[in-house]
Design brief:
Blueprint: H1 11-19, E1 22-25, E2 30-35, H2 39-46, E3 59-65, E4 71-81, E5 84-89, H3 94-103, E6 111-114, E7 119-125, H4 129-137, E8 146-151, E9 154-161, E10 168-174, H5 178-187, E11 191-192, H6 195-204, H7 239-247, E12 253-260, E13 269-272, E14 275-283, E15 293-300, E16 309-312, E17 315-319
Parallel strand pairs: 1-11
Antiparallel strand pairs: 1-7, 2-5, 2-6, 3-4, 4-5, 7-10, 8-9, 9-10, 12-15, 12-17, 13-14, 13-16, 14-15, 16-17
Length: about 325
């Protein structure tokens, strides 16, 4: 059993994410340029969302699954110019996404270029995020749109994303201009949020994380990515498996928030009534302020009811 940490969540940072605008600086995030006349059509045939209607200046988040219906990656598709897309993923493993798309690129006019090393990503999260963008950069962003502007002598791509249930704007720019943009948005109301407090917020709001809730160990339904599936679109990789899971109610786990009086460890196996009950996928070490700690877990169906108590390596965790 772990000892309780005395570190509390930073309420200023959490309030910014919940009621204002928080600034997150990513230390690792996949950024890929996908160009060519067939790029959008190819992604439409490979992934879970209908993408052909994503016109220039718009964006949509989608999931690429394996032929077994497991998540390869979830990523934003920003249609930044004619025959030019920017793919943005929370995963630092750009090679995985590139290899998976490249595998299915046969005769299509579509090329992938890894921009992960040459470009960096900032995220503005919270209800006033788009207001901060407008006051800082002079751009009015509608929901799920993208815009490319010049700032501080360089090109900056702005992408609005509503897929996570919160206001979210990604700012993609050359690494040399990132600090300038960061300073500018904080002067206009954004609050810098460190990784631990952002992770605490993500867990508390049930936002699935890359290689945590979703990945090759899970399918998109159980991992909380249900809204990223268009059930009435045509075929995509893994579509038959995912359709069967849904049609025959074969999904065995659901994403749930857990509460405990000691921090849990990601990877801990859950049990209930001496039976396997699921897996802890993310855990915050920060005290909420009332002695509780939050985690996310893939919980088996028999234990989904609110207030169900589960064991996680000797720590009692309650389904929230």
């Amino acid at each position: 059993m772990q000892s309780r940490t005395s570190v509390k969540a930073d309420q200023t940072q959490l309030s910014a994410l919940e009621t204002g605008c928080g600034l997150i600086e990513w230390s690792g995030s996949t950024i890929v340029e996908h160009s060519g006349a067939d790029a959008l059509d190819l992604l439409n045939r490979l992934t879970t969302k209908e993408l052909l209607s994503v016109r220039v200046g718009h964006s949509r988040r989608s999931v690429l699954t394996s032929d077994r219906g497991r998540v390869v990656d979830a990523f934003l598709v920003a249609h930044v110019a004619d025959n030019k897309l920017l793919l943005v993923s929370d995963s630092p493993n750009s090679e995985r996404l590139i290899s998976a798309i490249d595998y299915y690129t046969i005769i299509e006019d579509a090329e992938l270029e890894d921009k992960t090393e040459s470009m960096l990503r900032l995220s503005l999260v919270g209800p006033t995020s788009r207001d901060v963008v407008e006051s800082t950069l002079g751009v009015t962003l509608e929901s799920d749109t993208t815009s490319t502007i010049e700032f501080d002598g360089g090109s900056v791509v702005l992408v609005s994303d509503t897929s996570r249930g919160v206001e979210w704007v990604d700012v993609i720019s050359a690494s040399s201009s990132t600090s300038t943009i960061s300073n500018a948005v904080t002067q206009n109301g954004a609050i810098s949020v460190d990784q631990e407090n952002f992770e605490h917020f993500r867990i508390s709001t049930g936002i699935p994380g890359s290689d945590k809730e979703y990945g090759e160990h899970s399918n998109p339904i159980e991992a909380g990515l249900l809204d990223l599936i268009d059930w009435d679109k045509g075929c995509y990789v893994g579509q038959e498996v995912i359709a069967r899971l849904d049609a025959y109610d074969k999904v065995q786990r659901n994403l749930k928030i857990l509460k405990s009086d000691s921090p849990l460890e990601p990877g801990s196996k859950l049990s209930g009534d001496s039976k396997p009950a699921g897996l802890v996928t993310s855990a915050s070490p920060l005290d909420t302020g009332n002695g509780e700690f939050l985690s996310l877990a893939l919980v088996r169906k028999a234990f989904l009811e609110t207030a169900t108590e589960l064991d996680a390596d000797g720590v009692t965790a309650t389904v929230s």
